[in-house]
Amino acid sequence: GTPGVEGAGAGPGVGAGAGAWAGRADADGGAAVRRSLEGQSIEVSLRLLIQKVARDPDEQARIYDLIMRQLRTEIEQKVIEATKVLRRDQALLVSEQERTRSVMENAGEGIIVVDGTGKVLLMNPAAEEIYGANLAAAAGKPLISVAGETRVVALASDIDAAPDKPPSAAIQVAGADGVKRTIRASWAVVQNEAGRVVGMVMTLTDLAKHRQLEKAERDFVAHIAHELRSPLSSIQASLEILDGEIGKGLDASQKKILANSVYNTQRLAGLINDILDFSKIESGMMAVRPRRADPRKIAAEAVESLGPWAERKTLSLTLSAAPNLPEGWLDPRRTVQVLVNLLSNAIKFTPAGGAIVAAVGRSRTEPDRWLVFGVSDTGPGIPKKEQERIFQKFIQLSAGEGHATGTGLGLSIAKSLVELQGGQMWFESEPGKGTRFYFTLPAFKPEEEAVAAVAPSPPPRPWWKRLLGLG
């Protein structure tokens, strides 16, 4: 049966002093009871109280079991009631989350939620299209760090300022300089009554339309260039035939006119090719096809093609190639194009009697990984004020032989062609001490050819990403 207070299940020290405890309770009243219960567990205290009202051990066990059943029933009822409240609150929370998610996902405008440090917590699909990444890739990253060529990010500098900190109107702005200049005059900072920056208002809201207009402009230029190239090629071929057949029978003035005609058609063909290349690069359609190639032969081809022009200007044009060069992993045609561009600029801007050197060697820091091509001249150098924008589009230098003609796209195209092949381009120049352009391209490794042979071509970007300029 159920043990009594004095049995093994009564708990430590309960049965030993039961009689004495009952006597003290009679003598001292409730004070003795309180002192005896202090520090005891609920089970021991309950058994001691039962001993007070019942002397028979069996009766004590029955009373104890009855009280415990009632206690369990009440506790279970309380738990059920509390669980109902929790379930109701949970259902409300889930419902609020679903409504919020639905609103976020179906909102036409992009919505991005950040924490107190400006890191991304949540963004809806419209914001993901603008940002160019899904939430998994963006979560936890600082929003201010995602600005690129196609977006501007502005956040309050005191986004997580303490309540007692003086409010600040400063904002953090990140993005391409050209884009920032375009919209800087059309935004306004939004503050609350306390002077705290809470956001900004911008008038440039239709980025898709802006990108569409840019694309239409590029397509128009490319179409016109294509239409011009066909008749120009015919004119150029005709002039070259005339030069070959009747050139020897012309007098000096006639030869000069014919030579100028041939030169100008060649120059116009170069301008058209620059425009077409620029259009391909801007639209992301420019392709490079790397393969194994001898870097010395590539440099020699570029030097030989411009040798007659350098000779006419009484310039020394030489090639310097390091011994035992490894093969390169590059696009030969595009690499020759880059070298021809750099050599043409050197010839154009170097005074008669100067020297131009095309060089190819190994990288000093990683000789087995990179080849380094270089073009140096003894020209006037690049003015300090123009060095920062030398690779910008439509920029022409003021130095050189009179007014330099061209599109101002050559260096920008050359740099892009190098970067498309995985290399880098830079320059060194001091006024009066010439200019040295360098660019790196990968050295050949057998595993690269194997990968290229089996690797599928990357899928084209979706039309909407090309339209918005996204990766």
Low-confidence stretches: 1-25, 451-459, 462-471
On the 0 to 100 scale, the average pLDDT is 74
Class by helix and strand content? Answer: alpha+beta
The fraction of residues in strands falls at 5-15%
The end-to-end distance, rounded to whole angstroms, is 80 Å
Helical fraction equals: 40-55%
> Radius of gyration over alpha carbons?
42 Å
- Tally of individual helices: 15
Largest sheet: 5 strands, mixed
Tell me the series of helices and strands, N- to C-terminal: HHHHEEHHEEHEEHHEHEEHEEHHEEHH
**Strand order across the largest sheet:** 8-10-11-13-12
Shape: elongated
By DSSP, the count of extended strands is 13
Q: What is the compact description of this entry?
A:
With 471 residues, the chain is α+β, with helices and mostly antiparallel strands. It is built from 15 helices and 13 strands.
Question: Describe it for me?
Answer:
It is a single chain. By secondary structure, the chain is of the alpha+beta class. It is built from 15 helices and 13 strands. The chain has helices at 18-28, 30-37, 42-53, 57-106, 125-131, 135-138, 177-184, 207-246, 252-283, 295-312, 332-349, 384-387, 410-420, 446-454, 463-468; strands at residues 112-114, 120-123, 152-156, 171-175, 187-191, 197-202, 291-293, 316-321, 328-330, 355-362, 370-377, 425-429, 435-442. α11 packs antiparallel against α13 (410-420). The longest helix is centred in the first third of the chain and has 50 residues, at 57-106. Residues 1-25, 451-459 and 462-471 have low confidence and may be disordered.
